[in-house]
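Board notes (copied after class):
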Amino acid sequence: MKAYLNLMPCKCNSLIPITFLKSLSFLIFYAAFCSSQTPTLVLPLKTQVIPSGSIPRPPNKLPFHHNVSLTVSLTVGTPPQNVSLVIDTGSELSWLHCNKTINLPTTFDPTRSSSYSPIPCSSPTCTTRTRDFPIPASCDSNKLCHATLSYADASSSEGNLASDTFYIGGSDIPGMVFGCMDSSFSSNSDEDSKSTGLIGMNRGSLSFVSQMRFPKFSYCISGSDFSGVLLLGEARFSWLTPLNYTPLIQIATPLPYFDRVAYTVQLEGIKVSEKWLSLPKSVFVPDHTGAGQTMVDSGTQFTFLLGPVYTALRNEFLNRTAGILRVLEDPNFVFQGAMDLCYRVPLNQPRLPRLPTVTLVFRGAEMTVSGDWILYRVPGQVRGSDSVYCFTFGNSDLLGVEAFVIGHHHQQNVWMEFDLEKSRIGLAHVRCDLAGQRFGLGK
C-alpha cells in the first residue's frame, strides 16, 4: 500500500477552499504548495464539472456543495468518473454508490474503470486494516471483502472493498481503498441522493487522510457569506490567529461504546453567557463502557449532548430567554428527533433579539456559539404568522447515541485544525469569509 503515498517529487500539500451553502452551488478554489523553496500558489476554480474521460491538470475545477452535509466533487477511475462525496470526520471508510439500478443522479460504475480492483477477503487490507470498523468485515460468496456500515441516523450501506485511482488537485492517487456499495438505506433520501458517497476523514487506517498520510488538515466555514476553506496539509500563514489546542483522547483497550478512531476531545464544562452550568466534571468523562466520549464530527449538522447535560443547558437557556422569545408549545414537534426546544418568531421580524451565548469548554480550548448560530430556522415550518426556530443543541439520548457530538453548524467561523502528528485539535475564532478571501475566495 506504500506505492501510491508519494505522489510528487516534493512533499506537497493540497488546499481546497469550500464554499458553504444551504442548497446552492458555489465557487471553489485549489492551491498546492511544495517545499520551503516554492511559494504558495492559489489557483482559482469555478463551478464546472470535470468532464468524464479527461484527467484533470492544474488549475483544477472541483465543484463543492452543501445541503446539510459538506460535500466535495472529485473524479475516480480510469477513465475518470465524476463523483460527489460527503466530507465526514466521523467516518473511516470512503465509499461510493456502485449499483446502477438505484435512482441516484451519480453513481460509480466499476465495470467502466480499467484501474478498479476488488479486494479479496484473504488480503491483509481486509483481515487487519478493517479492525476499527464498527461492524467487522466479512467474506462474501465470491470471496471478496464485504463491509457493512451503519450510522446514527439509521442510514446504512454495504458492499465490497476495492481500490481504484482517485484524482484530486491535479494528482492521481492510485490504489486508494474504498467501499463500492451496492445497497443502501437512507433516513434522508432527498439529501443523500445528491451525493455519490462519502469520504472518510477519521483516524482509522483506511480513512482518506490516513491513506494519504497527511500530517494534519484544517477547515474554516463562514456563516456570513457562505465561503470557507478546507486545507489538506500544513497551515503556516502569518495572518492566521494563534490556535488553542485540546488533546485528542485515546485509549488502548477496546470498549463497547468508545470509537477509538474518532476525533475525541475532553469536554470539561459549558457556560451560558459566562455562567457555568452546575454540573460535575464527571458527567463529561466516558464511563467504563466508553459511553460519554466527545466527538468532533463534520458529518453531523448540529451538536448533541447526553441527557443530563442537555437538560441543564436547555433549562438555563429557557430561563435566559423568558420574556424575549415565545416558546413553541407543541409536544409532538421535536426537530430532527432530538431538538425539543423551539420558538415562534414573527415572520415579519427582521432579526432575532440578542441571545445568550453558549460556550463549550474543552481541555485547553473553548468554542463559543452566539448570534444566529444559537437558533436555527426550520425550513417549511410556519405556525400562523410565525416561523419556527429551534435551539441548535439536541439530546443524544433521544437519538440513541451514547456520546457528545460537536456538529459543523457550531464550527462556523472557527478555524479547525486536526493535527494527526501531535494528536490534538486546534481552535481559533476567526472570520472565515476573510480567511477565504486570503486565497482569492469571496468578494
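Comment from the instructor: The helical segments are 124-127, 189-192, 208-212, 307-320, 396-399, 432-438. Confidence is low (pLDDT under 50) at residues 1-68, 187-192.
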